[in-house]
Design goal:
The chain has 14 helices and 14 strands. By secondary structure, it is α+β, with helices and mostly antiparallel strands. It has 2 domains: 18-127, Glutamine synthetase, N-terminal domain (Ubiquitin-like (UB roll)); 147-476, 2-Layer Sandwich (Creatine Kinase, Chain A, domain 2), CATH 3.30.590.10. Helix 5 runs antiparallel to helix 6. GO terms for molecular function: ATP binding; glutamine synthetase activity; kinase activity.
C-alpha cells in the first residue's frame, strides 16, 4: 500500500487502513484500477476484490511495462527506451495502489475505483517517467521547505454528435458539432443537450472531482470547465479523471468530447490553462504581499505589474519564464498542440516568453490584487492546450518556479504591456518553439534546464523525449489530405 503523500488531499471517503478498506468494499465483488501513461491516457483493468485487497496490503501488483513502451495508439516506440523494451521482455512494473484516490464510478454501477503509481519492482522507487511519480518528486521539494503546492485546471473542449463507430466510418472527417455557431457564455446553448451538459457537472461531483465553473465557450459545440482549486497532486488526478468522466458520459449520450488542442484550422483552439500557487503550513499564500504593502505595492518590485506579487512570487515567475522554452513538450506534448499556438495573441494562445498583470495575451498571467484578494494571488500558465498531461504540465511549472526561488532569478524583461509587435521581430522577446520537433530538440539538448538533476534529470528527459521523437517520426512519415489535395493533380 502506497504511503499517503503529505501533498495529497484525500477523496471524501478515502480509507486510512486495510481494515477500513475491507469495510468499504464489503459488498463489492470487483474493483477498477488505473494508472497514467506518458500521453495522459488512463491504463487500467478490473480486479477481483480478493486480488485487490491482497495487493493493497502489500507493495502492489504486477502491471505490464509495455504501457511505457508504446504510444497513444498502442504502437511500440520507434526505438527502445529506458523503461519498457524488447530486451527485458516487457517485464512487469509494480503498480502501487493509492488508497487516498478512492471513489466510486457513478455511471458504472458505483464500482470502486483507485489510481496507482508505477514503481521499479527491484528498488520500489517510482519509474522515471511515471506521471504521478514525476509530480510527487517535484512536490516533495516544496514539502521539504514546509510549503504546499496548489493548482487549478481549466479545459476547453469541442463536442461532436458522433460515436466511436461513426468517427471510424467517417474517417474523422465531416464531423457534426453538437451545436452550431460561436456562443461563448451562452445561456441558450446550454438548454440544447441539457441532459449531457448537466450530467458533466453533477456526475463530476458524485465522482469526487468537484468543479468551479462550467459553461459554453466560443466555437461550435465548445464547453469550458474549471476544476475546483486544490492541492497540485489532487488536481492532476482530478484533471485526468474529468477527461475520463466526460468521455464516458458522452459515450452514453451519443456525444464525443474532444480535448484535441486544435481540431479546426480556422477556429480558436482548446486551452488547458493551469493556475498555480504555493502556501505555507498555515495556508498563507507565498505569492501574496504583506498587509502593509496592499496600499502601494512592494517597493522593490521589478515592474508595476509585479508590485502586488511577493518577492518569492516574482522569483517563482522568473523561474517559470527562464525554463519555459526548455520544457515545452511537457506543456504541449502533441504535433497538433503547436498549431494552437501559431495564432499567438490573435487566439489568446501566447507563443512567446511573456508575462503581465491580468493579461490574457501573455504566456503567464499574474492574478493578484487589486483584482483578487491577497489570499487568491496566483499565476495562470496559458501555454498548455487541453491535450496536456496535467501531471507533466504541473511538474514543469512547479519545478521551474521552485528553481527560480532557490536561485533568486530576475525577470527576463518587461511585462507584455510594455512590448510592441516589433519586439518579437527584433529579438527583444524570446519566442517559444513552434513545433514538437523543435521543442523536443531543445528539451533534449545538452545543458537543457530540464536535464538538471534538481529539475527532471537525464533519465526522464531521455525517456520522455524519446516518446516525443517517436511522435515526430510518425508525423514526418505521414501523407496528409492537405498534401494530396495540394499536389496530386498539379505538381
Amino acid at each position: 500500500m502506497a504511503n499517503r503523500d503529505p501533498n495529497d488531499l484525500s477523496t471524501t471517503h478515502a480509507p486510512r487502513s486495510i481494515d477500513e478498506l475491507k469495510e468499504l468494499l464489503r459488498d463489492d465483488i470487483k474493483v477498477k484500477v488505473a494508472g497514467i501513461d506518458v500521453d495522459g491516457v488512463l491504463r487500467g483493468k478490473f480486479m477481483s476484490k480478493d486480488k485487490f485487497l491482497s495487493a493493497a496490503a502489500s507493495d502492489g501488483f504486477g502491471f505490464c511495462s509495455v504501457i511505457f513502451g508504446w504510444d497513444i495508439h498502442d504502437t511500440v516506440y520507434s526505438r527502445e527506451l529506458l523503461i519498457s523494451n524488447k530486451a527485458n521482455g516487457y517485464r512487469d512494473l509494480l503498480a502501487s495502489i493509492d488508497l487516498s484516490t478512492y471513489r466510486r464510478i457513478p455511471w458504472e454501477n458505483n464500482v470502486p475505483f483507485f489510481l496507482v503509481s508505477f514503481l521499479d519492482p527491484n528498488t520500489k522507487e517510482p519509474v522515471c517517467a511515471d506521471p504521478r511519480g514525476v509530480l510527487r518528486k517535484v512536490l516533495q521539494r516544496a514539502y521539504a521547505k514546509e510549503w504546499r503546492c496548489f493548482a487549478g485546471c481549466e479545459y476547453e473542449y469541442f463536442q461532436f454528435k458522433e460515436t466511436p463507430d461513426t468517427l471510424a466510418e467517417k474517417k474523422f472527417t465531416n464531423l457534426q458539432p453538437l451545436t452550431s455557431g460561436m456562443h461563448g457564455y451562452s445561456l441558450l446553448r446550454t438548454q440544447l443537450n441539457s441532459g449531457y451538459f448537466h450530467d458533466l457537472f453533477d456526475q463530476s461531483l458524485a465522482f469526487d472531482v468537484p468543479l468551479e465553473g462550467h459553461h459554453t465557450e466560443t466555437g461550435p459545440g465548445v464547453y469550458e470547465t474549471a476544476l475546483a482549486y486544490t492541492s497540485a497532486s489532487r488536481m492532476a488526478d482530478n484533471a485526468i479523471l474529468f477527461k475520463f468522466l466526460a468521455k464516458s458520459i458522452g459515450m452514453k449520450r451519443g456525444v464525443v468530447p474532444s480535448f484535441m488542442a486544435k481540431p479546426w484550422g480556422n477556429l480558436p483552439g482548446c486551452s488547458g490553462h493551469i493556475h498555480v500557487s504555493v502556501r505555507d503550513l498555515n495556508g498563507k499564500s507565498l505569492f501574496a504581499v504583506s498587509d502593509a504593502e496592499l496600499e502601494t505595492g512592494r517597493a522593490n518590485a521589478a515592474y508595476p505589474d509585479t508590485k502586488f506579487l511577493s518577492q518569492e512570487g516574482e522569483w517563482f515567475l522568473a523561474g517559470v519564464l527562464d525554463g519555459l522554452p526548455d520544457v515545452m513538450p511537457m506543456l504541449v506534448p502533441t504535433i497538433n498542440g503547436y498549431k494552437r499556438l501559431v495564432g499567438g495573441e490573435a487566439f489568446w494562445a501566447p507563443n512567446a516568453v511573456t508575462y503581465g498583470y491580468d493579461s490574457r495575451a501573455a504566456s503567464v498571467r499574474i492574478i493578484s490584487p487589486p483584482s483578487v484578494p491577497p489570499s487568491a494571488t496566483r499565476l495562470e500558465i496559458r501555454v498548455p492546450g487541453a491535450d496536456m498531461n496535467p501531471y507533466f504540465a504541473l511538474s514543469a511549472v512547479f519545478a521551474l518556479g521552485l528553481r527560480g526561488i532557490e536561485k533568486k532569478l530576475s525577470l527576463p524583461g518587461p511585462p507584455v504591456s510594455q512590448l510592441t509587435l516589433e519586439d518579437k521581430q527584433n529579438g527583444k522577446v524570446q519566442m517559444l518553439p513552434q513545433s514538437l520537433e523543435a521543442a523536443t530538440e531543445r528539451m533534449m539538448r545538452p545543458g537543457s534546464i530540464a536535464r538538471e538533476e534538481a529539475v527532471f534529470g537525464n533519465d526522464f528527459v531521455e525517456h520522455f523525449g524519446g516518446t516525443r521523437q517517436h511522435e515526430v517520426k510518425l508525423w514526418n512519415e505521414a501523407v496528409t489530405s492537405w498534401e494530396v489535395e495540394r499536389y496530386l493533380e498539379l505538381a
